[in-house]
Write a structure and sequence with these properties.
The structure is a single chain. The radius of gyration is 17 Å and the shape is elongated. Helix content is 77%, strand content 0%. The protein has 149 residues and is mostly helical. The two termini are 21 Å apart. α2 runs antiparallel to α3 and α3 packs parallel to α6. It contains 6 helices and no strands.
Length: 149
């Protein structure tokens, strides 16, 4: 957990901490996204081979997405402790800036028509998960910044 702590907020400035969160999210999105994609593609290949196995959506949600939300809440909490103004908009602004990599990935995936190159079932799951992360994670950062304990 020490390598993540170096990415946690050090100042109470929205733009700097939003950019720091965006870099952290890009790293997590690249690593976690590639692992999830490869897992889903492996399961899809097994399904095409005739092995009746479901896509491990709940496994991914519990093992990767939920801890990601906890990390975003903790990031917001660390930012809120350093921020001089206790306005809720500051935490939500940091969360929105931090989710730029997710939004850019969605835009590239839609405009590049990446759904043509992967299985429709895998595409639906990945699109739903990335959309959910792009919308919920800024809320988690904002709520974390409001936490007073």
């Amino acid at each position: 957990m020490g390598w993540i702590e170096k990415w946690f907020p050090r100042t109470g400035r929205c733009v700097i901490e939003g950019i720091r969160l965006a870099i952290l999210n890009a790293i997590l999105l690249a690593g976690g996204g590639m692992a999830i994609f490869l897992l889903f593609e492996a399961v899809d290949l097994l399904r095409k081979a005739g092995i009746p196995i479901p896509l491990p959506v709940w496994l991914v949600m519990v093992l990767l997405v939920m801890p990601y939300y906890v990390l975003m809440f903790q990031y917001g909490k660390a930012f809120g402790a350093l921020c001089a103004s206790k306005k809720p908009a500051a935490g939500f602004a940091v969360g929105l800036l931090g989710q730029l990599p997710s939004v850019l990935l969605l835009a590239v995936a839609i405009n590049g028509e990446l759904y043509r190159y992967i299985s429709p079932q895998v595409w639906r799951v990945l699109f739903t998960m990335i959309s959910m992360i792009a919308f919920v994670a800024p809320v988690m950062v904002g709520l974390g910044s409001l936490d007073q304990k």
